[in-house]
Design a protein that fits this description.
This protein has 466 residues and is α+β, with helices and mostly antiparallel strands. Helices cover 27% and strands 29% of the residues. The protein has a domain of 126 residues: Neutral Protease, domain 2 (Orthogonal Bundle), CATH 1.10.390. Helix 5 crosses helix 6. Bound molecules: arginine and zinc ion (ZN). GO terms for molecular function: alanyl aminopeptidase activity; metallopeptidase activity; zinc ion binding.
Length: 466
């Protein structure tokens, strides 16, 4: 006891509880409190964090495919959105070697997928700071509630398929991993010569030294963490500029190259088609990543540069490209609204097909409507999947597209495309939700659409009439 009292005051101040008390009583108004461990999304309660906005991620990854070891630093530019005694980041597996805030060592602890960082002094609301996390280890993907692998997905040939929707970002970098936060990114990946690392946005630099090559990528428009990638393979690469001046970078697994080529070559035409319908393409780069990863079982609209688990079909390329407007530029605030991504991207496929000799969108609607009540299409409402295990089920995709076709038939072509374009431009680089889409549709059309959305977006089972 006596020895404890004799400890210098500084040591006492360093204990977190006392430090919080002392700092909380400071002159900056209000007590400092811990940032919440989640962003408050009922589908994925631990995803994201409270009290912080990440302005920018500077990721520096050094990866050795043969050992699967990652040595990395993440430099996050963060704004405190409340007065913080501590805050969390999402991180799954890996070993944290140190955490610094504006250059000073900060205390940290780990529990589950939460990394809690406690600065030596509270961080005032509105303050902008750098948190630098040094970490390492063999990354392991997570399995989503629907059973699919998510995050840093290592392939049998040592290549890495990196796709993180909805929660895999935490498997490869400490993140505020919820779509309600968007940030710009600099991603630098160092790999042994012969390997290529592909991320989002533009390739700023590529340099080789001592048997290793570093690829420096920059995504300069805001991006949700789930749309970040740093995929690694022995790719064949191709770079060109479209007629409208957009730089395209493709990376393709050699086994897929022949099958992928005719489809990837359509990307400029697809971007032109969708720009005509949805307004200008929102990003300053484009391209594709095609891997040989059939066990993954899905493609993802990674920002500016979708990733495919095999040579894609054209309708899949059309779908992932449409997500650049719907999902990537205009982003969800909660996973329940996933139809705003998947219904819109599916409808883009319908529009493309209708324009290229396929059935009309009205015919697609009719064909889907004819499916029996027992079909998965009617198993839950497109606008209310119920939990994270159903967000990639059939209703948000197919029935989500039916909602849009129903809207089109109700308001007419002119207002319908005006709504899509206004949606893309009013929320460009931002966030939106279903209530906002309904309000915009009513505003532009001047029609009361409540009954239509209640039936088609939120109604249970198969609507009685088409
Ligand atoms: N958004 C992707 C697409 O529709 C699907 C992602 C599926 N991800 C998953 N973890 N099941 O193209
Ligand atoms: Zn999709």
């Amino acid at each position: 006891m006596a020895s404890k009292i004799a400890r210098p005051l500084l040591a006492l101040v360093a204990t977190p509880v006392l430090a919080a008390l002392l700092v909380g009583a400071g002159t900056h108004g209000g007590a400092a409190t811990p940032g919440a461990p989640g962003a408050g999304d009922p589908y994925f309660p631990d995803s994201g964090n409270g009290g912080i906005h990440v302005v920018h991620y500077g990721l520096d990854l050094d990866y050795t495919p043969t050992t699967k070891n990652l040595v990395a630093t993440a430099d996050l530019t963060v704004t405190a959105t409340q007065k913080l005694s501590s805050f969390n980041l999402d991180l799954s597996g890996l070993t944290v070697d140190s955490v610094r805030i504006d250059g000073r060592r900060a205390a940290f602890s780990r529990a589950g997928n939460e990394l809690t960082v406690t600065p030596s002094r509270a961080l005032d609301k509105g303050r902008r700071f750098h948190v630098v996390v040094a970490y390492s280890g063999v990354p392991a993907h997570v399995n989503d509630p629907d059973g699919s692998p998510d995050g840093w997905i290592i392939q049998p040939d040592d290549s890495v398929f990196v796709a993180s929707e909805p929660q895999g970002a935490m498997t490869w970098f400490p993140s505020n991993s919820h779509p309600s936060d968007k940030s710009t990114y600099d991603v630098e990946v160092t790999v042994p010569d012969g390997w290529t690392a592909v991320s989002n946005g533009r390739l700023r630099d590529r340099r080789s030294r001592g048997g290793k090559t570093t690829f420096a990528w920059r995504e300069s428009q805001p991006m949700a963490a789930y749309l970040a990638t740093a995929s690694i393979g022995r790719f064949q690469t191709e770079q060109y500029t479209t007629r409208s001046g957009l730089p395209v970078y493709n990376a393709v697994a050699p086994s897929q190259a022949a099958a992928a080529k005719p489809v990837l070559d359509q990307l400029p035409a697809v971007i032109e088609f969708e720009s005509r319908l949805f307004g200008r393409y929102p990003f300053d780069a484009a391209g594709s990543i095609v891997q040989d990863a059939p066990d993954v079982g899905y493609a993802l609209e990674t920002q500016t540069r979708p990733i495919y688990d095999r040579a894609p079909r054209l309708d899949t390329l059309v779908h992932e490209t449409a997500h650049q407007w719907f999902g990537n530029s205009v982003t969800l605030t909660k996973w329940q609204d996933i139809w705003l991504n998947e219904g819109f991207a599916t409808y883009a496929e319908w529009l493309w097909d209708a324009e290229h000799g396929g059935p009309s969108t009205a015919q697609r609607f009719a064909t889907d409507y004819a499916l029996p009540e027992t079909d998965a299409l009617w198993s839950f409402p497109a606008g209310d999947p119920g939990d994270g295990g159903h967000i990639f089920g059939k209703p948000p995709y197919a029935r989500g597209a039916m909602v849009l076709e129903k809207l089109r038939q109700t308001v007419g072509d002119r207002d319908f495309f005006a709504i899509l374009r206004a949606w893309a431009s009013e929320h460009r680089y931002g966030h939106a939700d279903s209530a906002g889409f309904i309000a915009l549709s009513k505003h532009i059309s001047g029609k009361n659409l409540d009954g239509m959305f209640a039936t088609w977006l939120y109604g249970r089972g198969k609507p009685a009439t088409p």
